[in-house]
Amino acid sequence: MLRPLLFRRALTTTTTLGTMAAESAAKRLKTDGGSSSLLIGTHNGHFHADEALAVHMLRRLPAYANSTLVRTRDPAVLATCHTVVDVGGEYDAARHRYDHHQRGFATTFPDRPTKLSSAGLVFLHFGRAIIAQRLAGAGASATEDDAQVRLLHAKIYQSFVEALDAHDNGIAVYDPAAVAAAGLAKRFSDGGFGLGAMVGRLNPSWNEPAAADPAEAQRREDARFLTASQRIGEEFDREVDYYASAWLPARAVVQDAFARRAEHDPDGRVLVLDGQSVPWKDHLYTLEQDEGRSSVLYVLYQEKPEPGAKWRIQCVPESKDSFVSRKPLPEAWRGFRDAELDAIAGVEGCVFVHAAGFIGGNATFDGAKVMVAKALAA
């Protein structure tokens, strides 16, 4: 029988400040008041990004802060675990069994098509508690049922966790049959790029000498797994913090600018972000979807939130990840700068227009508005 591997997670201030926010999750976990640590089980051998992240996410909750971890495939040992992820052939949230390999498993995140991995299962059941805890740690008042927490839960799944679910379940980004029918081929290999590859590289190589003592060999393998869990966990924490502290507050800024866009163009084609730029694409597309039309072509914002800062003109892409603009800046302006661009565009104060035509700049807001007016008319 394998000895449980002690894995104590030193949480940040979110541990103490977020305990109340995660109270409902703690109740669901049926802890014994903290008299002993919870035992988490996952499989030994070659490890992957999904269980490495699943273990990290569990340890973001106070109930698991002093948990121990055992990596084994022995059913008798797994039966002693409070929570089991990515092994055991069972998905039963009431008993905290979160495997996805069994025949017939087809669970997905709400409104998403991708079959879940162990990371997706843990995020499905505990993601809102984790998010509420980190919001509370940042000084915000949040519970699992708050609308903002639910919004972040869905957004972080789509931006981070879903790709890991797909990777672990062998689901391609594009339909392989459609790609083959279109005659498309990759321009370069991206197999080594991504969190899954990063975790995979932490596994022992096939020809790496193993320790003669089985217990020592398992200890070394477990140490590698802990490194993987920590590294992918750091990326997950950064993702949560970004969406909670930067993306979410930007929502109100974009909503205000969207409501006032007719002040700058009667057809609502120009969005002006007062003060400074914020992450605007997701919010703009959502607002347009709610309105039922895609109207905004250009977004104006200052380079820095200070008096006299230059202004940028950014073209709205056809979609969030597209490099194709709805209406690029005029071709005759592209690749020129300063006085030369002033003469070509017939506008004073021009700074530049990118050679691809998706962004440009002017020294003043009034100059940027003139550039936009000419671009709209072109």
Automatic annotation (TrEMBL):
Signal peptide, first to last residue: none
Source superkingdom: Eukaryota
InterPro entries tied to this protein: MYG1_exonuclease (IPR003226)
A single GO cellular-component term on record: cytoplasm
Similarity field: Belongs to the MYG1 family.
PANTHER family named among the record's database cross-references: METAL DEPENDENT HYDROLASE - RELATED, MYG1 EXONUCLEASE
Name of the protein: MYG1 protein
